[in-house]
Amino acid sequence: MRTLIKKIEPALYMTTQAENPESKSAGLVKWVAVVALLILASLGNHYLTQFPVILRWVAAGLLAVGAFALAFTTSQGRAFILVLKDAQVEARKVVWPTGEETWRTTLIVLAVVVISSLLLWGLDSLFGLIISSIIG
Length: 136
Prior knowledge:
Elements: H1 2-13, H2 21-47, H3 53-71, H4 75-92, H5 99-135
């Protein structure tokens, strides 16, 4: 596991783009373009009501897909894709409970909820009686 982390960390934090100021400004331009595309998709869908809804949705969807594709070409986008791949690898390692374990746990949780609610209802009723006897 540690060797996997050592391989991942340089890819996440030590990019060559961080050292090169021209690529940093190119990344900034890409992010501005991403935001502009998403704003254009939203405003176009809102203000171009003379076009059919399906056409506006398709145009907004295409602009959004283009924005996300452009975002994934940045160093942050590539790092995000790497994190998603690592999460997928970790998700494959999960051992899911059997059906019997799931039912058993569900019944235990249900019993605890019922007992807790009865206890709280009883305490509320008791305090209500005490307060009503004090107030009169």
